[in-house]
Write a structure and sequence with these properties.
The protein is an all-alpha fold. The chain has four helices and no strands. The protein has one domain. The longest helix has 13 residues. It starts with a helix and ends with a helix.
């Protein structure tokens, strides 16, 4: 997939804004879907880490389905 330089720089900027512990806490928190009564875990095996930017159509469709459900 071709990603623009602006997207690359934006993700780098976001990564540099937090410390290592904050990033680790965020990763750990994102795996706690089983703690929510109505939570679901969606796994996107073939999509990149920045999928909310590069594949917004896929993620937004799933979010909308979850919200409407």
């Amino acid at each position: 997939m071709k990603v623009s330089q602006a997207v690359i720089e934006n993700w780098w900027r976001q990564g540099m804004m937090g410390g290592a512990k904050v990033h680790d806490d965020g990763i750990r928190a994102s795996r706690t879907a089983k703690l929510l009564k109505t939570g679901t875990l969606e796994v996107y095996d073939k999509l990149p880490q920045g999928l909310c930017t590069t594949h917004a159509d896929v993620v937004n469709a799933d979010l909308l389905t979850f919200i409407e459900g």
